[in-house]
Design brief:
globular; magnesium; Isopropylmalate Dehydrogenase; alpha/beta; 12 strands; twelve-stranded mixed sheet; binds 1,4-dihydronicotinamide adenine dinucleotide; 2 domains; cytoplasm; binds the ligand NCC(=O)COP(=O)(O)O
């Protein structure tokens, strides 16, 4: 029996629904079940030229090839491609809630997420200028009761984890405290072993400031925060290199010396990753009690309904969820032996 993986179809006005229809094009090592409005999925498949067939998910039913299994959850209002509607914000969050509860009660082995639109969800929550929804990562942490999680993107031969995620740049330095950085590194270390089969991970840690602070002349976070944490964790046996100047960390010679990079903030690490792998990269949430992977791109409202959106990242996200499930089982078996 293949493990059942929930695939949330995301923002209904974006490319998520049509990309989910394209899961019908392949056989998968896991059994994907798309969470979304069945009518919407049919309509977007048709408008984007997909020949996918759809069937309601019944755990014991057989599925002909070329068919997408769907757990139908109804839209609040009909959706047009490229046109956001805050009335559907609760629908999008409802997809996530259903996937989370299914992972927690054992119905699903993992979840994969198609893109959501953070702005329209904030609007639907009446956020004003506040940010009541800043991303799947933070939402999953809150809704699984996990105090800290880590966003890591995988692609183009790279693994790039982030010490901070969706935060205004001005708030980044204050968020990089010794306890936060220490917890983040522990999560990256543990999950590279648990979910990626890397027994003794080598982690390259970026500095925050240009030239990693130039010995304190261009900022002191490296001296006051990062170095003491690295020293403490090295004493426990972790293989950590840094703080490294971020501008040269991503040269091939340096990257070859690590299994993953820890960047200090979103736009320090992700542009490099997306340059190397856009369309085939995967976003993984480390530190959760469940396995969650996601596409590396957003809602692409400009492409919705056109059939021109590339499904490569969604396909890679599903493949990686399957690989992580296998690695987790092997790790657990090793620990029990
Ligand atoms: N996993 C998620 O839920 C993510 C959600 N977002 C959200 O998506 C919304 C739009 O973000 P943008 O910055 O405009 O990024 P975007 O990724 O939606 O679009 C950037 C450019 O990439 C293109 N693109 C995106 N996906 C593509 C695909 N599958 N195939 C071909 N081309 C593709 C778009 O057409 C556009 O030109 C925002 O609300 C953002 O927060 C962004 C990244 C990830
Ligand atoms: N830049 C990554 C992104 O926006 C996706 O974040 P999340 O929704 O997976 O938390």
């Amino acid at each position: 029996m293949r493990p059942v993986v929930a695939v949330t179809s995301g923002e209904p006005a974006g490319v998520g629904p049509e990309l989910c229809a394209r899961l019908a094009e392949r056989e998968w090592p896991v059994r994907p079940v798309v969470l979304g409005d069945l009518g919407l999925l049919r309509e977007r498949a048709a408008s984007s030229g997909s020949a996918a067939m759809f069937q309601s998910w019944l755990p014991d039913a057989d599925v002909p090839s070329g068919t997408v299994e769907v757990l139908h959850l109804p839209l609040a209002r009909p959706s047009r491609p490229g046109v956001l509607d805050a009335a559907n914000g609760p629908y999008v969050l409802g997809l996530l809630d259903r996937a989370i509860s299914g992972c927690q009660n054992g119905a699903f082995a993992a979840m994969v997420t198609a893109p959501v639109h953070k702005g329209v969800i904030c609007e639907s929550l009446g956020g004003g200028d506040a940010l009541p929804f800043s991303g799947h990562t933070e939402y999953l942490a809150e809704h699984t009761g996990t105090p800290r999680v880590v966003m890591m993107l995988v692609g183009g031969g790279l693994r790039v984890a982030l010490a901070t995620t969706h935060l205004p740049l001005a708030r980044v330095p204050a968020a990089i405290t010794q306890p936060a950085l220490e917890e983040t590194l522990r999560i990256v270390h543990a999950d590279l072993a648990r979910h990626f089969g890397i027994a003794a991970p080598r982690i390259l840690v970026a500095g925050l400031n240009p030239h990693a602070g130039e010995g304190g002349h261009m900022g002191r976070e490296e001296i006051d925060v990062i170095e003491p944490v690295l020293a403490r964790l090295r004493a426990e046996g972790m293989n950590l290199t840094g703080p490294l100047p971020a501008d040269t960390l991503f040269v091939p010679h340096t990257l070859a010396q690590g299994d993953a990079v820890l960047a200090m903030y979103h736009d320090q690490g992700l542009p490099v990753l997306k340059h190397a792998s856009f369309g085939g990269g995967v976003n993984v949430t480390l530190g959760l009690p469940i396995i969650r992977t996601s596409v590396d791109h957003g809602t692409a409202l400009d492409l919705a309904g056109s059939g021109r959106a590339d499904p490569g990242s969604l396909f890679a996200a599903l493949e990686l969820a399957a690989t992580m499930l296998a690695a987790r089982a092997a790790h657990a078996a090793g620990a029990a032996a």
